[in-house]
Amino acid sequence: MAKSPMKAVIPAAGLGTRFLPATKAMPKEMLPVVDKPAIQYVVEEAANAGIDDVLVIIGRNKNAISNHFDSVPELEVKLMEKGDTGRLERVMASSDIADIHFVRQGEPKGLGHAVLRARTHVGDSSFAVLLGDDLIDERDPLLVDMIAAHERTGAAVIALMEVDPASIHMYGAAAVEPADDGEVVRVTGLVEKPAAEDAPSNLAVIGRYVLPPSVFEILERTPPGKGGEIQLTDALQELAAAPDGPGVVGVVFHGRRYDTGDRVDYIKAIVQLAADRDDLGPELRPWLKDFAERL
């Protein structure tokens, strides 16, 4: 994958209250998914899309995230002395994925506020935002298609996925109209967590965005919205409604996505990813079948 001048922003300042007490002292982004913390999958996704500059927005008690992406010489020496090259390579890989930077959000005031904290680092270029609760399977690239859609249209790009209409109340829902590309739709409006009967579609917004730098100016003047927080959705609404701008488009994703923000879905993500691995699947899959038969 050719390197992209685009930078990636990963908001990681949330408190992770749904996973207490596990997240009392450990950031939720560091919870393991098989044998890697969730946030490493997200950084790897950005790197696989050609992005080698990643800014992570952190809050208090999130130092474990920056420590994870640092080198650990004493551990590396021990593994080298043991001749454990497999584990040594995996440990060192987390330090070499990308050029990773950190900035504090301070008081968590919503996703829009977290994105705004990236303004100085991003500058006047378009950038990608990847939320750590959504893991996209590396076999089903999404971000590459979103970057291509942005370069082609100049629009802000959001990732959309069809969900059961009964579940749309858990997501932002997009009102859309067809565009020239069958997998890309024009977004005319967004509704945050609507009731099923009020949803404009069953296309849910999932945690990937490619945004123009003009979004920062909008976020600067966006007042707190739902929950008293600055909502990125409000800024996207303004971009979509601008008569003279390129607007907002959505890339409809049909691949594998794992939600690690919910306890049950987090467990499902671990099982699915482990079952698909060559080193774990052959032993795990027969056990899962036997276990399911005993339920």
TrEMBL record:
Example GO biological process: UDP-alpha-D-glucose metabolic process
Keyword Nucleotidyltransferase: yes
Membrane spanning residue stretches: none
Class in the EC hierarchy, top level: transferase
GO MF annotation list: UTP:glucose-1-phosphate uridylyltransferase activity
InterPro entries: GalU_uridylyltTrfase_bac/arc, NTP_transferase_dom, Nucleotide-diphossugar_trans
Documented EC number(s): 2.7.7.9
Name this polypeptide is given: UTP--glucose-1-phosphate uridylyltransferase
Keywords: Nucleotidyltransferase, Transferase
Pfam families: NTP_transferase (PF00483)
Substrates-to-products reaction catalysed: alpha-D-glucose 1-phosphate + UTP + H(+) = UDP-alpha-D-glucose + diphosphate
CDD domains: UGPase_prokaryotic
Family affiliation: Belongs to the UDPGP type 2 family.
Organism: Microbacterium bovistercoris
Nucleotidyl transferase domain boundaries: 7-273
Lineage, broadest ranks: Bacteria, Bacillati, Actinomycetota, Actinomycetes, Micrococcales
Key word Nucleotidyltransferase present: yes
